[in-house]
Specification:
With 338 residues, the chain is α/β, with parallel strands linked by helices. 33% of the residues lie in helices and 17% in strands.
């Protein structure tokens, strides 16, 4: 296993990132923290990129806000189509894939709902459609880069569905059976899922033959993981990471994995461009972070909070030694019986 020094354990990785706890243990499964969810669902402004729920994990559904809601009318959106003249042409989807989804969303809305309860969608070729605002989620901007901590798998996959676009390359560390990798692959330009279990990698390849999976132990083979990161950055204009190695692992192991991943971009002469988004699914890390968040769900004392999470718990031998020492001290300083 790659050794992590005491100094590295004390310094939080991705130090220039905005660390946020997007979900706490008290939040319902599949939901976001009430203090953080405004980042996704608050009032949209022109230029915002949003994701529209087409009720399918296999449809790319990012759109661009072009104006605000005025006088009770819904906001208008322009779907990003494959126009070479547009500066974000690499993040678009063909119109013929979106049209059936638009029609379903428009027809499924009840006739009794008012105009203000819908959002107008408009394609570059003039097609207009209506959509419920409840299906619109903001795509987080690349600046500032963020580390998002979530507590459960449903919320983790929800971010995979909404925060990844056609111009993104994604590395998922801890792909397990490949369910989240499949979601990421249906939205991103390139995705690689890695896991340290040969059985899980083989099963993932069987279940998701359209996805790429690699057998990599990030602690034993950091250089292999570094090469995969470099490969992802050559294939996509934007790089993101999803990390789910929690399971029954200790929180300190998840922290060491993040330190290892951060080492690819830190140092005096980093060879790789840092990711714009790192999503981490860890029950222990999210629970610990929830106790150190401000009103915006940002971790306010990262330098104080991180070492407590990253430091490995004492071994059984160390615990026995400490208990024995405490017993001797109590016997030595306890008052003599009369």
């Amino acid at each position: 296993m790659s050794e992590v020094s005491v100094e590295e354990l004390c310094m939080p990785p991705f130090g220039a990132f905005l660390w946020q706890c997007a979900q706490t243990p008290s939040d319902k499964r599949g939901t976001f923290s009430s203090a953080w969810q405004h980042n996704l669902f608050e009032f949209f402004t022109p230029g915002d990129i949003v994701a529209v729920d087409c009720r399918s994990n296999n449809r790319h559904c990012h759109a661009l806000v072009v104006d605000n809601v005025k006088e009770g009318y819904p906001a208008s959106f322009v779907w990003w189509l494959n126009f070479p003249s547009h500066e974000r042409a690499d993040s678009m989807l063909q119109h013929d894939e979106l049209l059936p989804a638009f029609l379903r969303m428009s027809y499924e809305l009840p006739e009794s709902c008012g105009l203000a309860s819908r959002i107008r969608l408009q394609t570059f070729d003039g097609h207009g459609f209506l959509c419920s605002p409840a299906r619109v989620v903001r795509v987080l901007p690349a600046t500032p880069p963020r580390v998002l901590l979530v507590h459960d798998t449903v919320t983790y996959r929800r971010l995979a569905k909404t925060q990844v676009g056609k111009g993104d390359g994604v590395l998922e560390v801890g792909s397990s059976y490949g369910e989240c990798t499949r979601i990421l692959a249906s939205h991103a330009s390139s995705v690689i899922g890695v896991d340290n279990s040969s059985e899980l990698v083989e099963e993932s390849r069987r279940r998701c033959p359209e996805c790429r999976f690699e057998l990599v132990d990030c602690f034993q083979e950091p250089e292999v993981l570094r090469k995969l990161c470099r490969e992802m950055q050559t294939e996509a204009s934007n790089f993101k990471m999803f990390v789910d190695i929690g399971g029954d692992r200790m929180t300190s192991v998840v922290c060491q994995a993040l330190i290892l991943l951060n080492s690819f971009w830190s140092g005096s002469a980093p060879q790789l461009q840092q990711p714009s988004l790192v999503v981490v699914k860890s029950e222990g890390l999210a629970a610990a972070a929830a106790l150190h968040c401000d009103s915006e769900s940002s971790i306010c004392d990262l330098l104080d909070w991180w070492p407590r999470c990253a430091r490995p718990p004492p071994s059984t031998r160390q615990r026995k030694k400490r208990a024995h020492t405490a017993l001797l001290l109590r016997q030595r300083f306890s008052p003599l019986e009369s």
